[in-house]
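Hey, can you fold this?
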Amino acid sequence: MIGSRIRELRQQQGISAQRLSDAVGGLMTRAVIANLENGRKQDLLVNELVAIADALGVVPEQLDERLRGSGSQWQAGYQQAIRDACARISELPG
């Protein structure tokens, strides 16, 4: 379960749920993170997964075992989301 893995990594690093919320730029509130960790929230958008992984200093595959291995539907969706995000970033002015 992603939520229990997030809690495990967060606690190992001594990060509060509020601090993790702040680290993901407010993309997820402390309450949403708590609900995710407690299993009350099951769905997680790719951008949320990437933001949480980045804030915890890990790769998304370390949070969700479905991303491990080649050819998974989740992995393909994740890779496409990364390509789309990179394309949007490259179009930003400056």
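Oh, and this one too while you're at it.
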Amino acid sequence: MRAAQCGRPHSQKIEACHAILTRPIGETSMRLLTLSLFLAIAALMTLADPGSAQSPTSYPWCSRGTKGVPGNCYYASKEQCQRTISGNGAYCIRNPWFQESARGRARTR
């Protein structure tokens, strides 16, 4: 890089360009390696499937807690949900994301 390309007053141009031109080669290659690794990890993270962490089975009932207590949607029946949450101030609701599987629909017909 030439001093005229640095875009600063003349004395600062010379100092800045000298710093750029005399930078150790190992430092530049290490920066490139770090940047390459960062970009590779970012690309791999975008390929991850967030849905794979969910249960393959969908259940029709959910519990909902009160006062910041989280609930869950792993109940096959309303009675099972009510027995589980009995006494802890939570309540049961139908799972708004429930999708009955094709096997489940075939059995209930």
